[in-house]
Each structure stands twice: as structure tokens, then as C-alpha cells.
Amino acid sequence: MSDQSSQSTREEYRILALYRFVQLAPPFDNYTDDHDKGLNDDSRAERNKPTANPSHHPILTNLQTELYDALRPLKVRGTLLIAPEGINGTICYPFSYGNDTADTTTDTSEISGENDPVFTYLKNHVLFGGPDLRTRLSVWKDFCNEEETDTNSEWDDAVKKIQELKQPQQAFQRLKIKIKPEIVTMGLGRPLFRNGKPVQDMSKTLSARHEENQKANPLRTKGQYLSPTQWDDQAVNDPDVLVIDTRNTYEIDIGTFDGAIDPKTKHFSEFPEYLEKLAREYDWTEHHGDEGDDREQEKTANSLQDTATYQKKKPPKAIAMFCTGGIRCEKATSYALQSNLFPKDMPIYHLEGGILAYLDHVAQKKNGSEAKNTASDNTSKSTFCGECFVFDKRVAVTDGLKPSKNYIPCYGCRGPMDRRLLLLSSNSISGEKRKAVESERQPSTIPSKYQVIMEGIPNLPELHCDPETKSWYLPGLTCPRCHDGTTRESLERFAQRKEQMEICAREGKSHFRDGKDN
User: Do 80 and 20 form a contact (C-beta atoms < 8 A)?
Assistant: First the structure.
């Protein structure tokens, strides 16, 4: 009877990404500058009273409490950011249903939020819900690597570890709902606050810095959406459109659109500076827009003239931006339109729903072609090359938002690490493969600075060199991308954490636990 009961229901993990720019609380200057009125010099510090800090605004604190109370009983984990300008985040939660209602599709764009209490609650929320709440719902299903079942025994340990990492599971460690000045920080007049306290800057008042941030406020203006169906024809495949990836380099390294520009940023706050440099590369006097805007174009072009003598590029006819889920590129287009870096009539586009929406769209077209038993033509091919990095345990996703088979998380920087590095570092490797790995790890070839940093730290794995990039890494602690910048203190902390995780794994315990879970 119990077996029949267990077969009548099936549980999966759903991952919901969402955001909306909507005024949840009065703009910062509306409840900061008022505190300056009528204050003498001795009480000028009153400007920093709690109501000037978004983390103390009653609307936001009440919303924070409400979200915790509503989501914790549903075993939701992940991070939601709330700010005066809106809400943003990604969460994961278990979802159960009977076989008669089981969702067997592998196309996540067809997953329904019906009978899903988490999705329904957030989508219908009185403060930020409704049709303007942008959501992307996916399922972490068991997309096992069939080709790994007959793997050579010398790889078994590493393959087993990778399969454990790739099993459907809770994508986050705990639930965090944070109150922030912004739901995505672009670094214009930042920072207004640090560690919950106003940052003092004698050169600018808090309200002046806030106004600087408003140059990237989508509630004022933003670019024009291009749907996933429009994206290829009107952006990627048009040589006269400048396509810009607004994500960071470590994300772009594992996948991006054909011909897209990599800004080489480590943080989104560096993007405004990049955009300013980009604008100076073009001769905007060659831009041909509406005749009525000639005076404005001339003014913009003159302001962008550079003192350098090199030949400037012919300007594009439009600019298109994209990011993971749509929020960063939405804010980036707002800044591009308000910064006067480009001619006023320059079309500024952004991909609606981001890469995640595009990958869903590609899967839907592919499934549609297969259902009709028709061969896929060029219209159903993806112009996205590689995989899309995501900020959870899946690490990256492919068409249909299927979890990556190729990347595992780096325990140091949390970025994507090629799974082959774990295979190469496996202690079970023998024969010619082992000799090849050992040849890359001779003590004489290890940089002395790494030896000094590692000396005396217990429980460190052997240092490895990636044969492809010739960069060093410590399996389970660092990756070729982050190892060079790792300090001794970081290594000690990483090693202790790794030991704790291994102990918990042996005892069948969870290393992380939300202490307020029921």
C-alpha cells in the first residue's frame, strides 16, 4: 500500500527567477531630504536617522517579514532582494503532484504555475505581482549523462562525484530576503549605504548620489524590448547592430551570442565606465537619424569627441544588450538612454527575459519541429554558443534550461569550472592518463609564490595545472580562474570548509541549514 502511495506522487525542484521594477517605497530623496529641513548644525546628523535608510523603511521591513512568513513554510530557499525600486531574485522549492497531473515535458517554457502555491503567491502579490512581474520557471529534472554509465573504472570516483553534483536537489542553502537601496547595483552614485549605515561622502550629499543613480532607473525610461522570436533577426544576425553582453567575464567565458561584445567587466558596477569608453570609439557625426534631431545629434557627437588621433569607427544603426534574465540589461539600457553617450535617436534594444527566455524559446521551436516530424531549419537554430551561467547549484543551463553536463561549481569563487578538471585530478586515474597529469605537476614547475602560500596548511589537495590553460588550481578549493588571486587566509578558510563538508557527507548531514526552517 505504501509503495502504491509513493508511486502516486512525484516531487521535483522548481527554480523561479523573477524581477520587477516597481515603486515599493517612496524614492530615497523623498524621505531623506525632508529630515534636513529645520535642523541646526548640531543636529545635522539627523539626516541619517533610520527612515533615511531603506533597510529601516516600514513598507520594506513589513514586506520582508511577510515574505519570510509566507515562503518558509513552503520550504523555499534562495535570495530575494527588495528595494524602493522593486524586487529581484531567484528561489528554489520542492513541488509535488500526482501522476495524473505530472508535468512530463522537457520544455520548461511550457511549465505551468497552476496549483503551484509559491508561484501563485508571488505572481498575485498586491505590491509587486501582476503581468509586469517577469518570471522564468524551470524544473531541475534528472537529466543524467547516459554516456557516463559505461565509463572506464579508473574514472569512477570522479564521475560519481560529478553525478552527485548534478542530481536534482535544492539549488540554494538557505532563504535570504534582503533590503537593499537597489535591486541591481550599477555603481553610479554608489554606495549610499554600507553594512546598513549611510556612507559619508563630503563631495556629494546622499540625495545627490541618489540622483546620480537615477540615470539608470528603468522606472524613468528603458530600452525597447526584443522578444526571443525577434532577437536573432533584429539583433544578432544584423551586422549593423552592436550586440553587447552586459554580464561579467566569468559568465561570458562559458557562453554568449554569436558576435556579441565582451565588456571585460568583473562586476556590473564597471559597466557604465565601459559604456563611456565604447561611445568614444565611434564617429557619431556619421550617424544618420531623424532630421528633427540634427541639433541634438551634433551636441552629443561633439561631447564624445576624443583627443586621440586614431580613426574612429563607423557607428552602428542600433545597440542591443542582453543578460541572464533581463534585469541587468534593462538597467543598462536605461543608463544608455539617460547618459547622453549616444545620439538621442539611436535605437537601444534589450532581450526580453534575457538568455533564459531565449533558451526556452529555442527548445520550444525544436520540440515543435520534432512533434511535426519536420527537419529543423535555420529559424530553429540557436545563435547562443555554449551554456548560460546561473547563480545556483546547477552552475549553467542549456536549451530548455537543462542543467549543465559540462560545468561544476568552484568552491572558491563560486564560478563555473570545467568538469574535466575534476576528472583530471581524480586519484583513481592510472596508466597513461596518470602520467600525463603528473608531468604537469612537477615540483620544479610550481611557481614559488604558490608553494609559499600553501606551506603548512593542513588538508590541502595536490596542486594541479590545467593542461589547456596552463593555469594552476587546487581541486575542490580553487579553479584556474581564481587560484592566482587566492590568499593564504582564503586557502585556510576553504580547506576548513571542505573538511567540514566531507564530515557532514560521511555522517549524512547537511553542511548548510536554514536555522529558521521548520
Answer: no
- Determine contact, residues 113/120, Cβ cutoff 8 Å: yes
C-alpha cell at 156: 569512477
For residues 450 and 454, what is the distance between their CA atoms, to the nearest angstrom?
6
- Grid coordinates in use for 422? 575534476
Report d(CA 275, CA 453) in Å as an integer: 38
Angstrom distance (rounded) from CA 94 to CA 15: 9
Q: Name which of 190, 207, 193 is nearest 55 in CA terms.
A: 193
Please state, in angstroms and rounded to a whole number, the distance separating the CA atoms of residues 427 and 475: 11
Tell me: the pLDDT tens digits for 418-443? Answer: 888 877 665 555 555 555 555 555 54
Q: Which residues of 65-75 are buried (b: 16+ CB within 10 A; e: fewer)?
A: eebbeebbeeb
424 closest CA partner among 455, 467, 364: 467
For residues 81 and 278, give the distance between their C-alpha atoms in angstroms, rounded to a whole number: 30
Residue position matching grid coordinates 561622502: 201
Phi-psi region of 388 (alpha: psi -120 to 50; beta: other; left: phi over 0): beta
CA angle at 162 for the pair 157 and 165, rounded to the nearest 5°: 130
- Whether the pTM exceeds 0.85: the reply is no
Catalytic sites, residue numbers? 323
Q: What is the DSSP string of 45-57?
A: GGGGSGGGSGGG-
Give the C-alpha separation, 497 to 477, whole Å. Answer: 9
Q: Among candidates 169, 168, 247, which has minimal Cα distance to 416?
A: 247
401, three cell numbers: 534550461
Which phi-psi region, left, alpha or beta, contains residue 429 (left: φ > 0; alpha: ψ -120 to 50)? beta
DSSP, collapsed to helix, strand or coil, labels residue 144 as: coil
Residue 434: beta bridge partners? none
> What backbone phi and psi angles, to 5 degrees, belong to 371?
-65, -30
324 three-state secondary structure? coil
Alpha-carbon torsion 385, 390, 396, 399, what sign? negative
Q: Which residues pair with 469 in a beta bridge?
A: none
Q: What is the pLDDT of residues 237-256, one digit of tens each?
A: 999 999 999 999 999 999 99
DSSP class of residue 457?
A: -
Q: Which residues pair with 77 in a beta bridge?
A: 92
Q: What is the pLDDT of residue 105?
A: 45
Q: How far apart are CA 28 and CA 206, in angstroms?
A: 9
What is the total residue count of the chain? 518
Q: Which of 156, 173, 183 is nearest to 22 (CA)?
A: 183
d(C-alpha 268, C-alpha 333), whole Å: 13
- Rounded CA-CA distance 461/412 in Å is 14
pLDDT at 269: 87
Please classify residue 345 by burial: count the beta carbons closer than 10 Å to its beta carbon, then call 0-12 exposed, 13-18 middle and 19+ buried. middle
For residue 517, the model assigns a pLDDT of 56
Q: Cell for 507?
A: 555522517
pLDDT at res. 388: 97
Q: Which of 38, 210, 6, 174 is nearest to 514 (CA)?
A: 174
Name the grid cell of 120: 501563485
